[in-house]
Design brief:
Blueprint (H helix, E strand, L loop, with lengths): L57 H6 L64 H6 L12 H8 L24 H35 L3 H27 L1 H11 L5 H24 L1 H8 L1 H4 L2 H14 L2 H17 L4 H5 L1 H19 L2 H4 L8 H20 L1 H7 L15 H36 L6 H35 L3 H37 L5 H14 L3 H16 L4 H24 L2 H30 L6 H33 L3 H25 L3 H15 L1
Length: 719
């Protein structure tokens, strides 16, 4: 006790006591008694007032994790409030007809009405019936001091001490495989969306070719349709696709509101800028058509059709940009599927539009429609349908944003909130895209001119675009999906100053994408002809065969094109947009120079085939330069030996597969002809041989990425 009873201490304590118990003063010569330590300041200091009330219970004290929740520093703890308060009187008297009436539940949060030491968050009020019926359900509580005895006993411990009962297992969380599993899951969602989008986009190109043909009318619409995309990429798209994802991730990490204000400012700025760009572009449509193709601009009928198509298509720049910004906001929040799935709606609208055109006017082979015979109503139908498709695609992003918790509120306070830095970074990306599109313009002009000079279908710009669409499908499905999931992670690693993590993620992206990119590239080289004769049979055998040769020329260029895409993401993660600009200038210059050489040297019928081969050659040059610069940026290590070994083994496995598969396909075409049936059989037989030989060779060479992919597929199928 803090103040023990002192009535029996006796006289030796230092003084006599009177009969009434009062202490008499000490006599002459007596030493005054020392102060009693039990009585001195017994109630002046209460050590529990400076402690947290929640840790006064010994069980809670033993279980309290002070490392994760350190106590407040001395002198900062608030004065405790009275522990007990009289609860307010009930509004109504208890009903005497109800026995053991259940009391009302306590309010949310800490309560002063509970007994001292109870935890209000875990207290449950029950009635007498529940107490009686559930009395046997009580479980033994965890011994708070068991770990002290275990530390004393050593690893073996006495057998007489009962084992500590384990707490009730928590609900099992969803199965996860860590970083790789999350990446594969995100990549799978995006790959599925991109696959459906590309397939429907491919069907869209088939319907466009069937409706307008592969001659001058098809080239006129293709130029008008690609013009908005080119202008968008030249002005805003390059920065949105590459620069703003790291900025959005950084704002989500650093800003107090999770980056929502920054995203609203960015979306508002992009909408205003795109509105101005659309107004200027629609006014300058004739000049833009002349810039894209002097050959079409020189033909009065073709120029009129192309300008009309362009004025319907150019407003899609606005909705294209809004869709991309919304998609990047979702990507920064870990939602990757919407941006890949919503383009399917655009393709469906366009397929329906061109299907209606074919239903009304027939296919190009049936109607023999050209730039001089296409009716204005048909041009209007195709133009409105093209614009409507992009509108639907952009508006479809709104439900995904609401589900992610983002609400768009226009904000015009652009100054002083980091957008200036973003625009400065985007400056080099715009120059990057400008250099790239300059090469595209050169190729467009040369391909259009070559198609008109040859006088044959399938040798112009539409054939080049269709073959490039097939060729780029694996890149968009595989590489873009993998890197879209990796880019936020690479950006965080670059922001944290961890070049090793950046290197590992880029190496992983290169090797994971190579497993599919390399065999597909050799498949295009071996079976490009039956692919196009099957898919574009409605355009005529001659046009389909020409597209097949163009696709074969594109084939192997898919490998450096994919590598270049992955390597440039490393520079964007470090917000370095100047290096990709210089690299793309080199690529565009090589592409334009080689394409011009092919246009001059080769016959007009084969000029576009040479241009397709020049495209891959230009990216092979660009990969060598970009690889060396990124390796220096990461401290001289880009896991080059591992990556090169993987690509070399995959190519060695693909070469015999392409030779055997291509031979089988060519033999089938010779036997059954280049019609739809013969092309289908050639593609199936040649593809089966090619994939079978490649898989066997890759397994024999023990390519670990192939084994990992097979194991993952088997695990998925086993579940």
């Amino acid at each position: 006790m803090n103040a023990p009873y002192d009535g029996d201490r006796g006289q030796g304590a230092g003084g006599a006591r009177s009969a009434d118990g009062a202490a008499s003063p000490p006599g002459q010569g007596q030493v005054p008694p020392a102060p009693d330590p039990y009585l001195q300041a017994a109630y002046d200091y209460d050590p529990y007032r400076a402690q947290d009330l929640s840790v006064q219970d010994p069980v809670n004290e033993a279980l309290y994790d002070r490392a994760a929740h350190p106590p407040p520093p001395p002198g900062t703890y608030q004065q405790p409030q009275p522990l007990y308060q009289q609860p307010p009187a009930a509004q109504y008297a208890p009903d005497p007809r109800i026995w053991a009436q259940t009391p009302p539940p306590e309010p949310d949060g800490p309560s002063r009405h509970l007994p001292y030491g109870d935890n209000p968050a875990t207290t449950q009020f029950v009635g007498v019936d529940d107490l009686v019926s559930q009395a046997s359900d009580d479980q033994e509580q965890q011994d708070a001091f068991a770990h002290l005895f275990r530390d004393q006993e050593g690893p073996a411990g006495p057998s007489s001490v009962p084992a500590e009962p384990e707490p009730a297992p928590a609900p099992a969380p969803p199965k996860s495989g860590g970083r790789a599993s999350g990446l594969l899951k995100s990549s799978a969602v995006m790959a599925a969306g991109t696959l459906v989008s590309r397939l429907t986009g491919f069907v869209r190109s088939l319907v466009i070719t069937a409706a307008l043909g592969a001659a001058l009318l098809g080239d006129s619409f293709t130029i008008a349709y690609t013009l908005p995309t080119m202008i968008y990429i030249l002005t805003v798209g390059g920065g949105l696709n590459s620069v703003f994802v790291p900025q959005l991730v950084r704002s989500m990490k650093d800003d107090e509101d999770g980056g929502e204000a920054y995203a609203n400012r960015l979306l508002t700025l992009v909408m205003v800028a795109l509105g101005v760009i659309v107004a200027i572009a629609v006014f300058a449509a004739p000049w833009l058509i002349h810039m894209m193709s002097p050959t079409i601009a020189g033909d009065a009928a073709a120029n009129s059709v192309a300008v009309t198509f362009a004025r319907y298509c150019l407003p899609t720049i606005f909705f294209m940009g809004v869709h991309v910004v919304m998609g990047q906001i979702l990507n920064a929040r870990g939602r990757f599927g919407a941006m890949m799935w919503t383009p399917v709606l655009n393709n469906i609208v366009m397929i329906f539009t061109f299907g209606m055109f074919i239903w009304v006017y027939g296919t190009s082979a049936e109607s023999q429609m050209g730039v001089q015979t296409i009716p204005p109503e048909g041009v209007r139908l195709l133009g409105i349908g093209t614009l409507l498709g992009l509108i639907v695609q952009a508006l479809a992003m709104i439900p995904y944003l609401r589900e992610a918790g983002f609400r768009f509120r226009p904000r015009f306070d652009w100054k002083g909130h980091g957008l200036g830095k973003t625009v400065k970074l985007a400056k080099w990306t715009v120059l990057f895209v400008l250099a790239n599109q300059a090469g595209v313009i050169v190729v467009t002009q040369l391909a259009t001119s070559a198609g008109k000079l040859s006088g044959k279908d399938g040798t112009g710009f539409l054939a080049y675009s269709n073959a490039q669409l097939i060729w780029g499908m694996p890149q968009a499905i595989i590489t873009v999906s993998v890197m879209a999931a990796l880019l936020p992670r690479i950006s965080r690693a670059a922001h944290d100053g961890d070049p090793g993590a950046v290197r590992d993620d880029i190496s992983q992206g290169l090797r994971n994408s190579a497993v599919a990119i390399v065999p597909v590239a050799f498949t295009f080289l071996a079976l490009g002809l039956p692919m196009c004769t099957l898919l574009y049979a409605s355009a005529g055998t001659e046009a389909a065969r020409s597209m097949g040769y163009i696709l074969m020329a594109f084939g192997l260029g898919l490998i450096p094109y994919s590598v270049q895409y992955v390597v440039l993401r490393g520079f964007y993660a470090y917000e370095d947009t100047r290096t990709p600009f210089y690299n793309t200038v080199i690529v565009a210059a090589v592409n334009a120079a080689a394409s011009a050489l092919c246009y001059v040297v080769l016959p007009a019928q084969w000029a576009v085939v040479g241009m397709a081969a020049s495209y891959g050659l230009a990216y092979a040059v660009g990969v060598g330069i970009a690889w060396r610069r990124l390796r220096n940026r990461l401290g001289g290590d880009l896991d080059g030996a591992h990556v090169v070994r993987t690509y070399a083994r995959l190519c060695l496995a693909a070469v015999p597969a392409a030779v055997l598969g291509g031979g089988v396909g060519f033999a089938v075409l010779l036997g059954l002809g280049e019609g739809a049936f013969g092309s289908l059989v050639a593609l199936i037989c040649g593809g089966a041989v090619l994939l079978g030989v490649f898989f066997v060779a890759a397994k024999r060479m023990r390519i670990e990425e192939i084994n990992g992919m097979v194991g993952m597929v088997r695990g998925r199928l086993g579940r």
